[in-house]
Amino acid sequence: MQDFAMDHVRSFIARPRVAEMQARGWRIVGPGEEGSLLMEGPQPGGRPEPVGLFVGDLFDEMIARALARADAADAMTAAPHEARPHRRAA
Predict the structure, then answer these.
(1) 36 and which of 12, 51, 71, 73 could share a cystine (Cβ 3.0–4.6 Å)?
(2) Distance CA 58, CA 36 (A)
């Protein structure tokens, strides 16, 4: 097990996808958890992608959607009040 490449990724791969991953150049390293095998293969793009980039993009998208929903809710609650004429104090 000393022949692991430094530019490769090790991951648990579901048994139904093992043949597909082997066709992409991955190899079986050993047994994995239930229903999977531990495999090693080339990294996408030749280097690891920082997980923070994906999480940050996802978080930004979630915040944008929440703000859009809040704006829509504000517009719906404000519309009936603006449509009514204001009464003058007598």
Answers:
(1) 12
(2) 27
